[in-house]
Amino acid sequence: MSLEKVIEKYKNGEISVEENISNVLNKIKENELNAYITINEEAIEDAKKLDEKLKENKPLGKLFGIAVAIKDNISTKNLKTTCASKMLEDFKPVFDATVIENLKKEDAIIIGKTNMDEFAMGGSSETSYFGAVKNPLDKTLVPGGSSSGSAATVSNGDVLIALGSDTGGSVREPASYCNVVGYYPTYSLVSRRGVVSMANSLDQVGVVAKNVDDVVDVIDVISSPDEKDMTSIKEKYDFSKENYDFSGKKIAIFKDLKQFGTEDSVIEDFNKAIEIVKNKGAIVEEIESEYIKYANMVYNIVMSSEVSSNMSRFDGIRYGFHPTDYKDAEDLFLKTRSRGFGEEVQRRIATGTMYLSASDGQKIYKQGLKVRTLLKREINEILKKYDFIFTPTTTDLPYKLGEKIDNPLSSYDSGIFNVIVNLSSTCAISVPIRKGLSGSLQIIGASFDDKNLLNAARAFEGGRDEN
Fold first, then answer.
1. 266 and 394 in contact (C-beta within 8 Å)?
2. Among 36, 50, 193, 442, which is 20 to 30 Å from 42 by CA?
3. CA-to-CA distance for 59 and 107, rounded, in angstroms?
């Protein structure tokens, strides 16, 4: 079922918006995935208003009556936004993020707020204050993270669309683990106003869906200029759907995927994807990289440093968790952060603070920025010579819940091909290669080449389904 078909059913009177939204809410409440932190109980009232709008023959929005799940670090007015943290356990924003405003303008219905790794720090959902999300393909496995609930609820068929945030693969990794589509737009195509920042130079709102067509329909709505976000685009971007022909297109793939720790089963699936585009006439060439081997280290440095800066706002005074047994301001600050933040968040704050330390002239942080520049330059040069870079989305398949809980660095292990996208400010999409637990294909495109990227992904889906 696609977004277009659901809207067509509304128009034809096959089902009312109220009936559909009621079905969605029941399915969410009945499953055992722990994919949601907050369910929007006002969704039924919103649905009734849309049914009236349809009866009165008023113009309908592009996402009329579509239930959209929202990652719980995206601000929703009067609906809790917790970031899956004790720090914001009962926090209700007084305004909608720009992406939420854009969805509502086009008659989408916010169905609820999805579970996630605390403050988006983690890759399995196991850092959430509200407990881990289960992978709908196998409930003993992690769903990936940090947009865990968003990927799980789409994979489970609760909703067709969910929004997440992606700082180093946080939309694409869970999409791959849950066998759905995950898209990371070029930085600035989507306003970040109202999205709780983790690492400002890397964060971007992304889309999770069952198919690429639906991704295009949603990104066309949520992407917009925003005068309240200094990093956003100045003019509306063209996401129109067009037929994409792989004939003669040049695709770069990295030589020897095993050097990046890629599992054999993932490589096997990736090779199937390559055969699909070769059969469509693409020219696939192996390339080598000088700087990708440093990507995870550079990401750790840049991300942790920006986390340290961003998280300083949570001080126990203005909003959020507030201990009562403090002696003075310093004690208040210490108890707020030690009790309000989980272990992983505390670890990243401490690591970033160390990288930013003036005692050594911020040597590690500055070196990280230099290598990031070199990596970005390398990726951009590759994309001048090739139409796209193809990689596996992750280097592994989902693992057992609890298996890596004692290894705090494990969340970086599988995402080396993800973080190069965020670090280089390019765009990427993860598309399943086959059904079930399997590897996914990540297509990486140049900055602002999102239209071609999405249309190429649509063409890949078509070729995959033909096989």
1. yes
2. 193
3. 10
